[in-house]
Amino acid sequence: MPQVTKEVDDMLTLARATGDDDPRAALAAARELRRTADRTEAAVVRRARLQGLAWAEIAEQLGVSRQAVHKKYGRR
């Protein structure tokens, strides 16, 4: 299974788990969903840069400033 597909499947599973009746389980799922989303975003930003997208374009797509996206991912 390609890595991106696995990440998407994992995120869907976690998103569903946030609806668990047990609030502890739901909170744990939300925490892991946020971590997975952060890792996925970082990978997508790296891929975008490798394909030649400018920081400004990446920032626009993410809905943040160019400075914010460059500060978060520019030194990796």
Automatic annotation (TrEMBL):
<protein>
    <submittedName>
        <fullName>HTH domain-containing protein</fullName>
    </submittedName>
</protein>
<keyword id="KW-0804">Transcription</keyword>
<dbReference type="Pfam" id="PF08281">
    <property type="entry name" value="Sigma70_r4_2"/>
</dbReference>
<dbReference type="InterPro" id="IPR013324">
    <property type="entry name" value="RNA_pol_sigma_r3/r4-like"/>
</dbReference>
<keyword id="KW-0805">Transcription regulation</keyword>
<keyword id="KW-0731">Sigma factor</keyword>
<feature type="domain" description="RNA polymerase sigma factor 70 region 4 type 2">
    <location>
        <begin position="41"/>
        <end position="73"/>
    </location>
</feature>
<dbReference type="InterPro" id="IPR013249">
    <property type="entry name" value="RNA_pol_sigma70_r4_t2"/>
</dbReference>
<comment type="similarity">
    <text>Belongs to the sigma-70 factor family. ECF subfamily.</text>
</comment>
